[in-house]
Predict the structure.
Amino acid sequence: MCGIVGLLIKNPAMRGQLGALMVPMLVQMGARGPDSAGLAVYTDELPEGERKFSLYAPDWNYDWSAFETEFAKRFVDTASGTAGGMDVAIIGNHAVLTCDESVAEVRRWVKERFPKLHVLSAGRSMDIYKDTGHPSEVAQRYGFDSLAGTHLVGHTRMATESAVTPAHAHPFTAGEDFCLVHNGSLSNPNSIRRKLEPLGIKFETDNDTEAATRFLEWRLREGDDLETAVQKGFEELDGFYTFLMGTRDQLALVRDAFGCKPAIVAETDDYVAIASEFRSLAKLPDVKNAKLFEPMPHELYIWKVQ
Amino acid sequence: MTARNITEDKAFDLAQTSVRELNDWLHNGLQDDGVSHVDVLNPEGAHNIAVGINAAVTIDVRGHAGYYCAGMNKFADITIHGNVGWGVAENMMSGSVRVKGFASEAAGATGHGGLLVIEGDASLRCGISMKGIDIVVGGRVGDFSAFMAQAGTLVICGDAGDALGDSIYEAVIYVRGELKSLGADAQIEPMSDQDKQKLRGLLQRAGFDHAPEEFKRVASGRTLYHWNADANQEY
C-alpha cells in the first residue's frame, strides 16, 4: 500500500500556498505509506539555456561547499572568471543546483567527481525532495509547507517489493521535468528493464516504479504524446497501479484496468486535487463544494496548468 | 420501574472523538444509554465508521466516509450524507445502509442480509460475493459487479460495466440501463411477474420510482456449477 497526492493550483493568487495546502494531504496519506515520502514541485520555468538539478547527499551535514568549489572550478567561465549563473540552494542532504550547463555533462561530471551524490532530477521547472521517515517528518524536514509553485506530485510509501532507502522513495524521474509516483506493484519490471537497457537507458535502482517511469519517459522522448505513451503502458506494464505523473505543465493520472488501487479527485475553480482517498482531501479549502469524482480504470486523466 | 427514555439523541464529532471511541460506545454503551439516534459529525473520510453494530439504532453520518463504513451491520439503519470509500456495508447481516452520494469499490461485498441503497453511482465490484443482501444502486455500477454473487438481489437503475455477474450463483441482477458486457455464465432472462413484484418492492423501499418493466433480469446459466472435464479450461 502507498499513498499518492497531487495538487494543481488554477488560481494564480494561491500558488504561494501550494506547499501549505498539500502538507495535510500528505500527512493524511501517512497511514497508507509510513516508511518514506517524496515530492516533486513545479515552479516557474528557467530560461531555455538553464537547467536545475535536485541532488541528494548521503548525510544531512554534507559538505556542499566542496561541491560548489569544484563545480565552479570545472564549469568556470575562463573569459569572465565566473561560473555562468550558478546557484546552489541547500536544505540538509538535498540541494538544488541551477546552472547553464548541459544535463548530460553535469550528470557525467557529478557521477565521476562526486559518486556519493545522487542526481534526483534535471529540468527547467521541477525540484524533487524524497527521503525515508514518516511523511509528517519528511514534510517538516524539507519545509514542504513553504513551497510555492503551479503543481506538485507527492507520495507516501509502504515498501512491498524493494528496499526502504531514499533512492527507492518516490517520485521517480527520467529525462527532464517528468516524474511519476505509483501505488501498486508491477509484476514485469525486469522484462521492461531488459527491453530498455539495450537501448542505452540506465537504471539506478531495482524498484518496479522506476521501470514504469523510464518506459513512459522513453515513449515520450520517442515522440509519443502522453495518451499514446500511456496506451503502450497499458500493453506493456503488467500489475496493479495508480500512476500520477507530472510534466512541466500538467498532471496526469491513470489506473490499471482492474481498478486495483484507489484514487479520488476534487476540483474547484481554484485547484485540482488528487489523492488515494478522500480523507487526504478533507482539509482543502471549500472542498465541501468541490466536484468530487472517482477516476475510471483504464482511462487517462490530464489536467493542464492554465 | 422507570420507563427508559428511548428517544434520546446523541452526537459524536469525529473532529474531537476518535472512530475507536465512537465504535466502542456503539458496541458497549448504546443500549445502556437508551439512545435511538446518533449523529456522526465531521467524518472527513475516516475509515471504519459505525462498523459491527448489533442494535436497532438510527445513525446519520454527516459527510463523506472512508473505507468499510457500516460494515457487518446488524439491525441498525445508517445513512451517509455524502460519499463512501471502499467496502461500504461489507458483510452486512440486517438493517439498512443508505449512501446519499457515490460509493467506491466493493460496496456491499459478501453481505448476508439487509438493504444497501446507493443513491449515486457505485464503482467496481459492487456486490462481489454477496450472500443474501439486497442492493439498489440509483446510478451506474462499475466492472465486475456481482462477481460470484451467491444470493440476494442487485438492482442497477443506471448502466452496468464490463463482466456483470461473472460466475454468479443464485443471486439475481436487475439492470435498467445499458449493460456493457456479461461475465462468464451470466445470462439475460425474461422478467416474470414474480421478478416484477420483487423489484417493485425493492425500488419502493429504496425510494426510486422506475417501473419494473424498464429492467432486464440477469442470472446464472448454471453451467459452471459442476466440474466439466471436457471444457479444457476454456471459459
In short: The interface with chain B takes residues 258-259, 262, 264, 277-283, 292-294, 296-297 of chain A (CB under 8 Å). Helices of chain A lie at 18-28, 64-74, 103-113, 135-141, 189-196, 208-221, 226-236.
